[in-house]
Design a protein that fits this description.
three-stranded mixed sheet; single chain; about 40% helix; 4 helices; alpha+beta
């Protein structure tokens, strides 16, 4: 099952996403939470500390700043840019890629 939450700013997307992720994880489902928001706070909603949430955001931001290679697979995205959150949720911050190399 894949769930995407979209809507107007301030409508509760992050809160709804975090609550849904934790409920599904507590029921034994494998949950991968991807924060694609321009103001990434999903980590806080699923129980990560402010420091760990900021660390995930800074990992993603460094891609464009350092000319680092983007992860080629979902597994590598989680490995390089993710963390294990409470309730066994795998969490990563994945934002829009402004610069890419299709080669």
């Amino acid at each position: 099952m894949k769930i995407a939450v979209v809507g107007k700013g301030g409508s509760g997307k992050t809160t709804t996403s975090g609550t849904t992720a934790r409920l599904l994880a507590r029921k034994g489902k494998r949950v991968i939470a991807l924060d694609c928001d321009s103001n990434p706070n999903l980590g806080l909603s699923i129980g990560l500390s402010v420091a760990e949430t900021d660390r995930l955001v800074s990992l993603r931001q460094r891609l464009d700043e350092e000319d680092a290679e983007h992860a080629p697979s979902a597994h590598e995205i989680l490995e390089r840019f993710g963390t294990l959150a409470p309730d066994g949720i795998q969490m990563a911050v994945v934002s829009r890629i402004d610069q890419y190399d299709p080669g």
